[in-house]
Specification:
heterodimer; A: alpha/beta; 6-stranded mixed sheet; 4-stranded antiparallel sheet; 10 helices; B: 369 residues; alpha/beta; Transcription Regulator spoIIAA; 4 strands; 71% helix; elongated
Amino acid sequence: MGLMADPDSVISVRGLRTAFGPHVIHDNLDLDVRKGEILGVVGGSGTGKSVLMRAIIGLQEPAAGEVRVLGTSMRDKDEGEAFEIRRRWGVMFQGGALFSTLTVAENVQVPLREFYPELDRQLLDEIARFKIHLSGLPPEAAYKYPSELSGGMKKRAGLARSLAMDPELLFLDEPTAGLDPIGASKFDELTKNLQETLGLTVFLITHDLDTLYAICDRVAVIADKKVIAVGEIDELIATKHPWIIEYFTGPRGRAARLGHERQ
Amino acid sequence: MAQLAYFTEDQLPEGGTILRLGGALSISRLGDIDERLRSVSSAVSQIDLSQIEHLDTVGAWLVYRTARDHGATIVGADSDAQRLIAAVEGADVPGEAEPRRSHALYLLHEVGSAVIGTARTFVEFVGFIGQCVKGALNLILHPGRLRFHSIVQHFDMVGVRALGIIGLMSFLIGIVIAQQGAVQLRQFGAEVWTVNLIGRLTMRELGVLMTAIMVAGRSGSAFAAQIGTMKITEEVDAMRTIGVVPVEALVLPRIIATVIMMPLLGLYASLIAIIGGGLFCWTTLDIPPETFVQRIREVTPLTDFYVGMVKAPVFGAIIALAGCFQGMRVHGNSEEVGLKTTAAVVQAIFLVIVLDAFFAVFFTEIGWD
């Protein structure tokens, strides 16, 4: 186990242990996310993918271990450091987690108002408008409330809000779950585009094999309470771990691979 | 930290102005450049980005907007900058502005929608009562479908768990009646009539009324919040698809439990208030407990007890109906749950007091005074 963090890594997790009471989720988990990559995180249901994300962004206090994001330790940090780090990342939760009493445009403006209260109202409106466009929503969605949006639109609006601050690092929790295949591949394209255009590093939790093949630079597999392998999909299959083999060479895995190769 | 964004204006030899932007054109280093770029008055024909250290989407938008407003060309952009500008360019569609109304029109609109909303709520409430009656008739025809467990659970929530707070409240009310009554009646040398005041007021009015207000605050609000949350999480819809009638499963048990618990709580509250008043009489007016109890029995007619016991179940039904009705009206977001819970309590207390006034006149008319 390398104790020193890779200098290129945007996120580095060392020896992470998380537990809910006696129920241990992660034990001695290590993970590095390199600058500028899209890292896909996969694992069976209940293996703690979302918990890992929560531990990295500081919503879940780890029982042990070290988490560093953008060079700053996420444990025992003071409020000022935390503020600086939050300014540099964007998080999209599974259901969008939009503020239900605000319109989409107001949702996008929440982080901007929080961090840059001096910004002009007109500029805020303009920023909200192009962020909403960047995330693939029609302009009229800006004045709608979350309850008036479909599931896919909520996700896009959540993405628009997470992009509001021009983050260096983007966390996406199952962005394509519950989307139709056309919407899902559009979302993949969008993620890839944004990563290339804005130079983002993306931490992407997904169950979607097509997403893994289409846009992920590397994939991390969580099983047995740790990350058992990280790498390109072919490298993962070469590890011969039974769960990985089943995951990628099962009927769905084969279909996704075929679809990817055909392109 | 990178330098704040800045720009200079230069004249081009072939005429027109060139804006040279520099520094970090990113959201954290903007300063007042947005305003200054807006107020550039000369005709800009070129925008030079070659001195820019860092550009993000907000910076790209400012560059694009300035170029668009002046019809200028962008020069000196590296490939990253070009990509960013191209990305924000697509967003420049004339989106419809948020509709704005004049104040007078807005006021009219608000008043109008309040009137329509109230009328609609009233119609819905009548409809809801109808649903409940239908559900109740159904239960009478098929008594096996009565959710006995649920009713017992609500007995506990509405009744047993309220005993402490209602007892404390009634005890204090009894003392207040006795103390205030004694002060006023002393002026006529009629302190002994304080006992009449305590007995009649608590049995006839305050015991049940204060209990109703407490139950509305404790249980009416809980009903609205519980059912409202279930609406948002689609549990109510799930019930319908399984074939469970929500009125039968959620509403009727709550109404039945509250209707049964209210008279019991009301009687309990009245008795505790009388005990509180009795203690005050004993300590301050030197009326011993035996005399107090005997006086209470002489001056409080049985009809006062009947009046309280007739009112209590009606109040209970109103409180439970209002709570469940508002809960079922929740749709959309979590803010609705809060709004409807407040509405449930306000509506319940208001209706209880209106009905109480009606009962006061009614019982006096039939001679139960």
